[in-house]
């Protein structure tokens, strides 16, 4: 999937894990979260290994819109509602700190990443969301750099907004490349194409299976691979869901003086990329639902033409992020049974400030330093957002039971070329992708994460799980976890 960032990818060609080995600390995941943990460990002169299942800096962090901002939509209001006034302010302050950490790293390490200071404006037109703007303004108005405003001018007209000044945009790939260069220069042990398949606790060590080939024995694990891999013992699957969103780049003469985040559904955000290119994103929804009818790219394109009828559409892409139902990230010990695993997840589409705070907290946890445990993992989340909990349970029941019972038989010849379908065929519950007139790819309809059935998304040409949000390509290869293994190919 090409994006505006693809041209800046670096081929590091780092080795795969090729022997059994031991390490005091293993980082799983080479996205912004894993890389920042590695950077901090390097600065602390701690020994570690980082394993990345694919290539470094190619996960969600490479498909983002990269506004580095504390203007997190409605989040402050939500945290206040689900937790407390105090926690909403603490979250805000931690984001301010995240912003300043990342800014300092760019400056001190001289990373050339197209850094550009800009305000972010969250805005609304609908009455319900105007109220949300007012509530958030009331909550945050005593901090610096916050203004209430409205705009009657095209192209960004809105009834009410909050401007957060002194935010920035950057090129996330160039930033991550800068960090990777530093890690490589320091001869840190980093492996690509080394996917963690299984984690087993063995007395004081974790036995981590890589690519079904070799073991890494680790005293501590930093799990920075988005959705937790090891699942049952802290019920994360009842607390975090995956949400997909879409982005489109376009050439335009439009000049934006800020980044914008609309609170009105379908929750659209827009930023400039370079002097004649902009990026628009949005239409967030639970992964695995609305796969049939909604062509979100077309709807984003329509928005673009409303802004500039002469715009020229560029790249279109999707990605998904982890959303904690109680609106706070998870950074801390995995569970009572696994205190030596540190989980880093739940950035809810605001991963840049959050990953830097997370990496700082990870070091505090490793060093046993007292810190504000704002994102603690041992918190009661289940009923903080009953609607999302019920929805997640419903998706799981559907994926694990009902969609399997009610699956219908069909004729594979009815499937269009370059399309797919989950169906009963020769008495088997399978996934069929029709590659050409006479070529079909048959896969077992069982997500390798927890066995849920999958759904074909004909727009993105992928298989999606609505249980826990794994996404596989048309041949069954994992694109996004929590699944760690590809789908089983069947020969029928
Ligand atoms: C469309 C979209 C727009 C966004 N826009 C913004 C924005 O403007 N500003 C902002 O702050 N945030 C934004 N975000 C959120 C932000 O991009 C993410 O929160 C952040 O990139 C997540 O980083 P990560 O390191 O956790 O995940 P990733 O970048 O996905 O890294 C995780 C890595 O772990 C690897 N991995 C997974 N499983 C395994 C395994 N079993 N073994 C080994 N490796 C494994 C993956 O291959 C991947 O490389 C956006 C998100 C989306 C979806």
Description:
It is a single chain. The protein is α+β, with helices and mostly antiparallel strands and 492 residues long. Among the domains are: 6-63 and 173-238 and 327-381, 3-Layer(bba) Sandwich (FAD/NAD(P)-binding domain); 388-490, Rieske Iron-sulfur Protein. 24% of the residues lie in helices and 31% in strands. The chain is built from eight helices and 25 strands. A hairpin with a 6-residue loop joins strand 12 (258-262) and strand 13 (269-274). The longest helix is centred in the first third of the chain and has 24 residues, at 85-108. The chain is globular and about 60 Å long. The mean pLDDT is 93.
Per-chain topology:
Layout: E1 21-28, H1 32-43, E2 49-51, E3 67-68, H2 75-82, H3 85-108, E4 116-124, H4 127-140, E5 146-151, E6 158-169, H5 172-185, E7 189-191, E8 196-202, E9 205-210, E10 214-223, E11 240-251, E12 258-262, E13 269-274, E14 277-286, H6 296-307, E15 312-324, E16 330-333, E17 341-345, H7 351-366, H8 386-405, E18 419-425, E19 428-434, E20 440-444, E21 455-457, E22 462-464, E23 471-473, E24 478-480, E25 489-490
Parallel strand pairs: 1-2, 1-10, 2-7, 4-12, 10-17
Antiparallel strand pairs: 3-6, 4-6, 5-6, 8-9, 9-10, 11-14, 11-15, 12-13, 13-14, 16-17, 18-19, 19-20, 20-25, 21-22, 22-23, 23-24
Helix pairs in contact: 1-5, 1-7, 2-3, 3-7
The structure holds flavin-adenine dinucleotide (FAD).
Flavin-adenine dinucleotide is lined by residues 28-34, 51-54, 58-61, 63-67, 195-196, 224-226, 229, 245, 247, 281, 319-321, 347, 349-352, 355, 481, 484.
